Amino acid sequence: MRLKHLATFIWSTKMKLTQADRVAIYNQLEILKLLDPSRTKEFDEQQEIVSYGYELFYSELNPMIAEGQISEAVCTEVLDILNLFRIMKFSARDLSYTPKSLWAEFEGFDANEPDGYHSFARFVRRTQGKFAELADQPDNSHSSASLPHYRSMLRTWQALGRPTKLTAEQIEQIADAK
């Protein structure tokens, strides 16, 4: 199904397609109908969208492709936040310490925010399998307060010199950051 991935790669909600692009996509859809006859009706509809150039419906060709991109800055901040929670978790474990603050546990990012934090964190944790020690933590915090608090925690950790081994007091100080 490599052709399917190629076709879905070039479709996006704001992209303008040339006539040559539309011919190529139309032909890819013909091949997809042969490869997956159970989806012939769906591919026929997509061919009509491409054939007549219904730009309004280009986004329906593959709704799995998100508008825009997630910036490197957002990705880096997510990784910093996850790394901080990793350090807090390992430090607490090494100290045989149970943090008092509820903020000492990663609670995810708000999935209702369109900024990409939730989806990138979910990708890194669930798809790539990184930060396995946080695997039992949720992806969706259901709270727009999470990110601002995580940022306060990062600032506090940075002010401490970004230590990789924390004391119990530092764990609480970071978790309760304002």
Description of the molecule:
With 178 residues, this protein is an all-alpha fold. It has two domains: 2-61, Helix Hairpins; 72-175, yfbu gene product, domain 2 (Orthogonal Bundle), CATH 1.10.3190. The protein has eight helices and no strands. The longest helix has 24 residues, at 72-95. The radius of gyration is 22 Å and the shape is elongated.
Percent helix range? 55-70%
CATH level-1 class of the largest domain: Mainly Alpha
So what's the overall shape? elongated
Which architecture of the largest domain per CATH? Answer: Orthogonal Bundle
- Termini separation comes to 50 Å
Work out the count of structural domains.
2
* Oligomer kind: single chain
Sheet with most strands = none
Q: Averaging pLDDT over every residue, what do you get? A: 88
In short:
56% of the residues lie in helices and 0% in strands. The protein has 178 residues and is an all-alpha fold.
Features:
178 residues; mainly alpha; Helix Hairpins; yfbu gene product, domain 2; 2 domains; 0% strand; elongated; disordered N terminus
Task: Reconstruct the topology from this structure.
Blueprint: H1 2-10, H2 19-35, H3 40-52, H4 58-61, H5 72-95, H6 117-127, H7 146-159, H8 168-175
Helix pairs in contact: 2-3, 7-8
